[in-house]
Amino acid sequence: MSPSPAGETPLVLVEDLEVHFPVRKGLFGRTTDVVRAVDGVSFTLGRGRTLALVGESGSGKSTTGYAVMGMERPTGGRVAIDGIDRATMTDAQAREATRRMQIVFQDPASALNPRMRVGDCIAEPLRIHGIGTRASRADRVAELLELVGLSPGAATRLPRDFSGGQRQRVVIARALALEPEVIVCDEAVSALDVSIQSQILNLLLALQERLGLAYLFISHDLSVVRHIADDIAVMQHGRIVEAGPVDTVFAAPSSPYTRALIDAVPRLERATRVG
Amino acid sequence: MSEAIEPVLEVADLRVRIGETDVVDGIDLAIAPGETLALVGESGCGKSLTALALIGLLPEAARRVGGEIRLSGERIDTMSERAMNRIRGGRIGMIFQEPVASLDPLMTVGGQIAEALALAGPVSPREARERAVAMLDHVGITKPELRVDQYPFELSGGMCQRVMIAMAMIRRPSLLVADEPTTALDVTIQAQILRLMADLRAETGAAVLLITHDMGVVAETAERIAVMYAGRVVETGRVADVFAAPRHPYTALLMRTIPRLVGARKVALPAIAGSVPDVAGWPRGCRFAPRCPLATDRCRAEAPPLDPVGAPGQRAACWHTDRVPEIAA
Ligand SMILES: Nc1ncnc2c1ncn2[C@@H]1O[C@H](COP(=O)(O)OP(=O)(O)O)[C@@H](O)[C@H]1O
Ligand SMILES: Nc1ncnc2c1ncn2[C@@H]1O[C@H](COP(=O)(O)OP(=O)(O)O)[C@@H](O)[C@H]1O
Ligand code: SF4
Ligand SMILES: [Mg+2]
Ligand SMILES: [Mg+2]
C-alpha cells in the first residue's frame, strides 16, 4: 500500500501472515481450539513512511507488530525485512534486522529499569551490540537526548525523576540508539495526557523528517492516526478489512466497519448544540 | 443554567488536603436536573478527588478541609457516615473508569444489583432478581436472564460498564457521578455507553457529573464544562460558548493541541510546553504560568480569581483573558 517504485524492495513486507495461538481447554490441557490472532494479513511498509494499524482491542494489531519485530513466530505466511525472509535469516541477518527495527510500547515506566540511570539505559543497546567505546557511547547518549528534547544532564538521573512524557522521550532515545530504520509504535502515545501526547507526536514527526524513519504505528485512536500516518490498515478479528492512503480512507471508507469506527470518534465540532 | 431551578448538586469552596497541600483548592460547582457538567483536565489536576470528596469516599491520605455540599438543597457534607451510605447508591449513583475492577469478582452480576437495591430497604430475592434482569435488559445487555447469574470475569469490559450503570441507575438517583466511565473502552463501545448514559439521563432527569479528559466526549455529551488545572477550576461555562471562544489559555491550548479528524495532517501540533507540575511544585500566583505563553510578572505573583468573562455564565481565572483569542486561533 505504500507506493514503492517498481523494483524497489519494501523495507517491511508482510504476506498472508498468520499467528494462531493454541488454547488449552479441559482437565488434561489438550489443545482443542486456536485463537486466530492474526489471520491472513498482508501489507508493505516503505522507507520513511508511516503505516497505521488500527482496530479495536483484540483485533490482532500488537501480535502483527510482534511478528514484524520477530518477537512472535508466524504460524503461516511470511515477514520479510528488506527482501530477506525472517524464517530463512542467518544469525547475522537476524541481528542486523534487530538493529534496524525497534519497538516502543505504551507504558514507558515498565520499559525502563527503575534502578538504571537514564544515560546507561539509552546506551545499553550500543553496549549489547558492542558498538563504540565508553566515551563515544556517552557522546552518542548526549546526542540522542538532544534529539528527543531532553537536556544532557538527564543522563545521570533515574527514571523516577521524570514525568511520563519525559520517560517516553527516554524510551524513544533508546530506540534510536542503533539508528534503526523502522520503529513499531505500539500504542506509544495512548497513555499520555493530551498535552504530552501532542509533544510526542511532534517529536515522532520531526524524527521521521530528520532521520527518514518508517513507523508501523499501532493505535486505536483514529484522530491520532489520521494526523500522523500516510497509510492505514483497519483490522478486525485478525484480518485487514480496509487499507489505503489516510486521506482516501477517512474521506470515503469503503468498509462499514471503518465507517462505524470513524463515526464513533467523539468530535469537538459537534459542540454546536445550545444547552 | 437558569437561576430559577434548584440545582441537584451545589458545591461551594470545596477543599481537599493531602499532607500540607490543598490538592482540590476551593472549587464551586452546580448542576441542574437533567444537565451534564463535564469536569475536564489532565491527570493529576484533582478531578477524581473532587468527585470522591462529593460522595464521601476520599482515600485515607486525603481529607476534606472545607466546603459545603448540597444535594437538592440539603447539606450532605455534614451527614453521618451511615446517612451517606444510604445516599450513595440511592440519591447518588457512581460509575468509575475500571468497570471490571469496580465490580465484586466473587459475586454474580444479579447479586450485586440486588445488593444495590437492598440499600433502599428489604426486597424479596425473587423481586430483586426480576428487577435485576429488567435493569440489565434496560442497559442493553442481551440475554439478561443468562447474564444475571454470571460473574464479572465472564463479561467484556463494555458489558461490565453496563452492569455498573445498571447498579448506579437502578434506584433512579438524582445525581450520577461518572469518573472517566469510557476511558478504558474501545471507541465504538464508548459511543454506545455514552448514548446509554444520555438516554438514562433523559429518562430519569438525573444530573450528571462527568469526569473526562476527552474534549470530544465533552462536546458530544455535556451542556456545561469546568476545566481544572492544578486543583482549581480555571474556566467554566456552557460547552458551546467555551469551545467557540475559550477565555483561559489552558482551555484554548488544550483544544488546539488535540489531533482532529479535520484539518492539516502530518504537521506539528500546537504544543503546550512542559507538563502538569507535581503537587509539591505548584507555583504561587497563577499555577499555569510556567506553561503559559501569555504569562507576565503579575501572573507569577498573584492568583487570578474565577471571574465572569465572555458569554453569560462563562468564567475564567486569568489576568489576560482579553489576549486569549491570540492563542485560540
Ligand atoms: N500469547 C497469546 N496466547 C493466546 N492468545 C493470545 C496471545 N496473544 C494475543 N492473544 C489473543 O490474540 C488476539 C489479538 O491480540 P492482540 O494482537 O494483542 O490485539 P490488539 O493489539 O489489537 O488489541 C486477542 O484475542 C488476544 O487475546
Ligand atoms: N491516595 C492518594 N494519596 C496521595 N496522593 C494522591 C492520592 N490520590 C490522589 N493523589 C494526588 O492528588 C492529586 C490529584 O489527584 P486526582 O484527583 O486523582 O487527579 P485526576 O483525577 O485529575 O487525575 C494528584 O497529584 C495525585 O497524585
Ligand atoms: S493568569 Fe497569566 S499565566 Fe495564568 S493563564 Fe492567565 S495569562 Fe496565563
Ligand atoms: Mg495491542
Ligand atoms: Mg482521575
* Main beta-sheet annotation of chain B: 8 strands, mixed
Quaternary class: heterodimer
Heterogens: adenosine-5'-diphosphate, iron/sulfur cluster, magnesium ion
Query: Terminal Cα separation of chain A, in Å?
Result: 45 Å
State the CATH class of the largest domain in chain B: Alpha Beta
Q: Main beta sheet of chain A, described?
A: 6 strands, mixed
Biggest chain pair interface? A-B, 44 and 46 residues
What is the fold-level CATH name, i.e. the topology of chain A? Rossmann fold
Approximately how much helix is present in the residues of chain A?
25-40%
Instruction: Tell how many strands the DSSP assignment of chain B holds.
Output: 12
Helices of chain B, by number, come to 13
Number of domains of chain B: 2
Q: What does this entry show, briefly?
A:
By secondary structure, chain A is an alpha/beta fold. Chain A is 37% helix and 25% strand.
Topology readout:
The complex is a heterodimer of chains A (275) and B (329).
Chain A: E1 12-25, E2 30-45, E3 50-54, H1 61-69, E4 76-81, E5 84-85, H2 91-100, E6 101-104, H3 108-111, H4 118-128, H5 134-147, H6 164-176, E7 182-186, H7 194-211, E8 214-218, H8 222-228, E9 231-236, E10 239-245, H9 246-251, H10 256-264
Helix pairs in contact in A: 4-5, 4-6, 5-6, 6-7
Chain B: E1 9-18, E2 21-31, E3 36-40, H1 47-54, E4 62-71, E5 74-75, H2 81-87, E6 92-95, H3 99-102, H4 109-118, H5 125-138, H6 144-147, H7 157-169, E7 175-179, H8 187-204, E8 207-211, H9 215-221, E9 224-229, E10 232-238, H10 239-244, H11 249-257, H12 297-301, E11 307-308, E12 315-316, H13 324-328
Parallel strand pairs in B: 3-8, 3-9, 6-7, 7-8
Antiparallel strand pairs in B: 1-2, 1-4, 4-5, 9-10, 10-12, 11-12
The structure holds adenosine-5'-diphosphate (2 copies), iron/sulfur cluster (SF4) and magnesium ion (MG) (2 copies).
